[in-house]
Structure of Alpha/beta hydrolase:
Amino acid sequence: MNDAYGVRGDAVASYKEAPTRTVTAGGVTFAYRDLGPKTGVPVVFITHLAAVLDNWDPRVIDGIAARHRVITFDNRGVGASTGSTPKTIEEMAKDAVTFIRALGLERVDIHGFSMGGMIAQVIAQEEPELVRKLILTGTGPAGGEGIKNVTRLSHLDTVRALFTLQDPKQFLFFTRTPGGRRAGKQFLARLKERTQDRDKAISLTAYFAQLKAIHRWGLAQPQDLFVIRQPVLVANGESDRMVPTKNSYDLARRLPDADLIVYPDAGHGGIFQFHEQFVAEALDFLAR
């Protein structure tokens, strides 16, 4: 047992202790973390707007990593990864594939949250042989209803957060009910559990590039999702303001092999608010 990294044998046991590593491919040095057992199909997590490695809920990561190898990474130009951030979801998907292949992986499961779920849909369409199963959370299809409003909402809630001295995610990810507010505070506290080797915050340039990519995705023509033949788990909160929940229903209806979970009294961050249920359902889905 190596105490520095909470290691069992070679496997890192907790996200809080997972060292940040790098791999270079396609002219980009990608920062990533890798934990859980080294056997089986790994689950690659693709993250949301403005997020770096430290924005993943450790309860969700650790819960999945109890049974699967989990890999998180910073996309190009974000956090500790080098290069400049693309202004389209399609380019971000290419970067994610470059990163996955750089680790020598030939088959993965992908969990994409929010913007990450958009990237995951493109990967499944462009590189179907790479993807075994997909988990799409808090996300929507190209041209999905209300997605083009993410920029306006993000700006609005960032200003709101500044005036109330809160984190914008309290407004963007959670409902304003007592349960939602409490869940938001607990989630934000969990994000601070890691105290050493924390990632760099996203730059404003990278943030605006991501906003542009999401806006374009919201304005894009709908894609033929019937070509995604992999099993898909779709999950969201019932009151998602960022990517309206009807997009989750739309995804589940248009994908040929999809299960849908909608959490009550929850918003965009429903999987973090209901992390215990989500982890159990995700593990069940991956084991099927």
